[in-house]
Amino acid sequence: RAKQQQRGSSQYFSAAMGSDARERFKLLKGLRTGFEDSQLFVVYQPQVELDSGRVIGAEALLRWRTADGRFVAPDQFIPLAEQSGLIIPIGEFVMRTACAQLKAMQSRGHTEFRMAVNVSMAQFRHPGFIDMLAGALRDCGVSGHSIELEITESMAMEDADLVLRVLADIKRLGFSVAIDDFGTGFSSLSQLRQLQVDRLKIDRAFVQEAQSSTAGSTIAQMVVNLGRGLGLTVIAEGIETEEQRQYLIGLGCHEGQGWLFAKPMPADQLVAFLAG
Ligand code: C2E
Ligand code: MG
Ligand code: MG
Ligand code: MG
């Protein structure tokens, strides 16, 4: 009886795994053709100085709308793109689109505007990554000084030697670097100090827990203090309420991003947002 049950549950398990793998395979196939068919596009979420509300830049975020009009979340398709290697051409597309948009903003007089672009570990590992970055800058006629690359905290700690080496090349091109989703990984302080980064980005989870739980507020306070202590700029993501904004200002957080200020928007709306 027990044996039967065991066999039954393991059959169920492998069937579930099979259909999961099939789902992923289907999604990946869709992503590949979707990318070729221009179903991927980039939206921009403004980043502001917390006390003045001044817009200082925007984060480029990838979107996928399938042929039947459904949106697939980045958290679903980016891991697939990373595992399959598709992130290399897709990442180049995002970088070139963001650089071209930055150029357009600059020619409208927004010369201080900073564009933030997310990059994956798979891109860091790719031997052509630095050439890709240099090529995008050159072709779009922008300088790396107006662009920030966001790497996640777990990535920064994953392969320290590689990350340090690539970061040095990135800094040579003028880019600034932010550590994204900060507080969710396990950084060692000494590793963090070695990394040439400019900004810490507090993960949304801590912004949202900051006022509701003691642990959340302790972490938020510690991250802000840590960043400030290291001489970095601290930015919080996922700010949805005025209370959260005030609270973060009180902690000494410099910048923010979230629905309170603006949701991610298409390029033409970003131009209007900055003008208004
Ligand atoms: P992330 O880089 O941490 O981006 C912040 C996420 O928080 C975005 O989700 C954004 O839309 C969302 N967000 C911003 N403000 C608020 C808010 O006030 N409330 C709430 N609830 N959410 C907010 P999104 O666009 O779904 O992206 C998810 C993740 O996918 C990103 O997290 C990033 O890790 C990854 N991603 C997106 N675009 C790219 C890309 O071009 N390349 C790579 N490698 N990863 C990307
Ligand atoms: Mg990000
Ligand atoms: Mg983030
Ligand atoms: Mg996040």
UniProtKB/TrEMBL annotation:
Domain EAL residues, every copy: 24-276
Entry protein name: Bifunctional diguanylate cyclase/phosphodiesterase
Organism: Pelomonas baiyunensis
